[in-house]
Protein backbone atom coordinates (compact mmCIF):
# COMPACT_ATOMS: atom_id res chain seq x y z
CA UNK A 1 0.00 0.00 0.00
CA UNK A 2 1.51 3.36 -1.03
CA UNK A 3 1.15 5.37 2.18
CA UNK A 4 1.82 9.10 2.11
CA UNK A 5 2.02 11.73 4.82
CA UNK A 6 1.10 15.38 4.61
CA UNK A 7 0.00 18.36 6.64
CA UNK A 8 -3.57 19.37 5.91
CA UNK A 9 -3.75 22.96 4.69
CA UNK A 10 -5.95 25.12 6.93
CA UNK A 11 -8.31 25.81 4.01
CA UNK A 12 -8.84 22.03 3.65
CA UNK A 13 -9.30 21.20 7.34
CA UNK A 14 -12.88 20.02 6.77
CA UNK A 15 -11.51 17.09 4.79
CA UNK A 16 -10.80 15.35 8.12
CA UNK A 17 -14.46 15.44 9.22
CA UNK A 18 -15.30 11.84 8.24
CA UNK A 19 -12.57 10.55 10.56
CA UNK A 20 -13.41 13.04 13.30
CA UNK A 21 -17.04 11.90 13.25
CA UNK A 22 -15.91 8.29 13.66
CA UNK A 23 -13.55 9.25 16.47
CA UNK A 24 -16.15 11.26 18.36
CA UNK A 25 -18.81 8.63 17.63
CA UNK A 26 -21.06 11.49 16.45
CA UNK A 27 -21.21 12.94 20.01
CA UNK A 28 -20.34 16.31 18.51
CA UNK A 29 -22.16 17.45 15.40
CA UNK A 30 -20.32 18.02 12.16
CA UNK A 31 -21.40 21.68 12.20
CA UNK A 32 -19.86 22.20 15.65
CA UNK A 33 -16.68 20.38 14.65
CA UNK A 34 -16.33 22.53 11.54
CA UNK A 35 -16.78 25.72 13.58
CA UNK A 36 -14.21 24.59 16.16
CA UNK A 37 -11.65 23.53 13.56
CA UNK A 38 -12.05 26.86 11.75
CA UNK A 39 -10.85 28.49 15.00
CA UNK A 40 -8.22 25.86 15.76
CA UNK A 41 -6.32 26.39 12.50
CA UNK A 42 -5.67 29.98 13.65
CA UNK A 43 -4.24 28.92 17.04
CA UNK A 44 -0.86 27.12 16.66
CA UNK A 45 -2.66 24.00 15.46
CA UNK A 46 -1.77 21.76 12.52
CA UNK A 47 -3.19 18.43 11.40
CA UNK A 48 -1.01 15.59 10.14
CA UNK A 49 -2.66 13.06 7.88
CA UNK A 50 -1.83 9.75 6.27
CA UNK A 51 -3.28 8.54 3.01
CA UNK A 52 -3.52 5.24 1.19
CA UNK A 53 -3.30 6.61 -2.33
CA UNK A 54 -5.97 9.37 -2.19
CA UNK A 55 -7.93 7.88 0.72
CA UNK A 56 -7.55 9.61 4.11
CA UNK A 57 -6.85 6.84 6.62
CA UNK A 58 -5.34 8.60 9.63
CA UNK A 59 -5.08 11.94 11.38
CA UNK A 60 -3.26 13.50 14.31
CA UNK A 61 -3.84 17.04 15.49
CA UNK A 62 -0.77 18.89 16.73
CA UNK A 63 -0.81 21.82 19.16
CA UNK A 64 2.52 23.67 19.30
CA UNK A 65 3.56 25.56 22.44
CA UNK A 66 6.33 26.09 24.98
CA UNK A 67 5.81 24.63 28.45
CA UNK A 68 7.78 25.38 31.60
CA UNK A 69 8.44 21.69 32.32
CA UNK A 70 9.26 20.41 28.83
CA UNK A 71 10.30 23.34 26.65
CA UNK A 72 9.06 23.62 23.08
CA UNK A 73 6.56 20.83 22.67
CA UNK A 74 3.71 19.47 20.63
CA UNK A 75 0.56 18.01 22.12
CA UNK A 76 -1.03 15.40 19.92
CA UNK A 77 -4.80 15.49 19.74
CA UNK A 78 -7.43 13.28 18.11
CA UNK A 79 -5.00 10.63 16.87
CA UNK A 80 -7.01 8.20 14.77
CA UNK A 81 -6.32 5.48 12.20
CA UNK A 82 -9.11 3.70 10.32
CA UNK A 83 -9.93 0.26 11.75
CA UNK A 84 -8.88 -1.66 8.64
CA UNK A 85 -5.37 -0.16 8.82
CA UNK A 86 -4.65 -0.89 12.47
CA UNK A 87 -2.25 -3.55 13.76
CA UNK A 88 -0.12 -3.34 10.62
CA UNK A 89 2.68 -1.13 11.93
CA UNK A 90 1.13 1.99 10.44
CA UNK A 91 0.68 3.73 13.81
CA UNK A 92 4.35 3.31 14.60
CA UNK A 93 5.27 4.60 11.14
CA UNK A 94 2.91 7.58 11.52
CA UNK A 95 4.38 8.47 14.92
CA UNK A 96 7.94 8.31 13.54
CA UNK A 97 6.98 10.72 10.78
CA UNK A 98 5.36 13.03 13.34
CA UNK A 99 8.43 12.89 15.62
CA UNK A 100 10.68 13.81 12.69
CA UNK A 101 8.35 16.61 11.59
CA UNK A 102 8.00 18.23 15.04
CA UNK A 103 11.73 17.86 15.74
CA UNK A 104 12.41 19.89 12.58
CA UNK A 105 10.07 22.54 14.02
CA UNK A 106 12.18 22.70 17.19
CA UNK A 107 10.10 20.54 19.54
CA UNK A 108 11.84 18.84 22.42
CA UNK A 109 8.86 16.84 23.69
CA UNK A 110 5.61 15.20 22.55
CA UNK A 111 2.58 15.04 24.83
CA UNK A 112 -0.89 13.60 24.51
CA UNK A 113 -3.99 12.60 26.40
CA UNK A 114 -5.82 9.34 25.98
CA UNK A 115 -9.11 8.23 27.46
CA UNK A 116 -8.81 6.17 30.64
CA UNK A 117 -10.73 3.23 29.14
CA UNK A 118 -8.77 3.15 25.86
CA UNK A 119 -6.43 0.34 26.92
CA UNK A 120 -5.11 -0.46 23.43
CA UNK A 121 -3.88 3.12 23.09
CA UNK A 122 -2.17 2.94 26.50
CA UNK A 123 -0.18 -0.11 25.40
CA UNK A 124 0.72 1.56 22.10
CA UNK A 125 1.94 4.77 23.76
CA UNK A 126 3.90 2.88 26.43
CA UNK A 127 5.61 1.00 23.61
CA UNK A 128 6.38 4.35 21.98
CA UNK A 129 8.20 5.46 25.16
CA UNK A 130 5.54 7.73 26.64
CA UNK A 131 5.23 7.96 30.42
CA UNK A 132 2.22 8.97 32.48
CA UNK A 133 2.94 12.43 33.83
CA UNK A 134 -0.37 13.33 35.46
CA UNK A 135 -4.13 13.46 35.14
CA UNK A 136 -6.06 15.59 32.69
CA UNK A 137 -9.02 17.35 34.31
CA UNK A 138 -11.88 19.12 32.53
CA UNK A 139 -14.64 21.35 33.86
CA UNK A 140 -17.08 22.82 31.38
CA UNK A 141 -18.30 26.29 32.34
From TrEMBL:
The keyword Acyltransferase applies. Pfam families: Acetyltransf_1 (PF00583). Keywords: Acyltransferase, Transferase. It comes from the Bacteria. Residues 3-141 form the N-acetyltransferase domain. Transmembrane segments: none annotated. This is GNAT family N-acetyltransferase. It comes from Gelidibacter salicanalis.
Amino acid sequence: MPITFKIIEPANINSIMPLMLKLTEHKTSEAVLKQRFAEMVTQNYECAAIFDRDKLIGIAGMWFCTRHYSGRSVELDHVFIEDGYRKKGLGKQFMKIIYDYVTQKGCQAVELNTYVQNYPSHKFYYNEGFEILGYHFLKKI
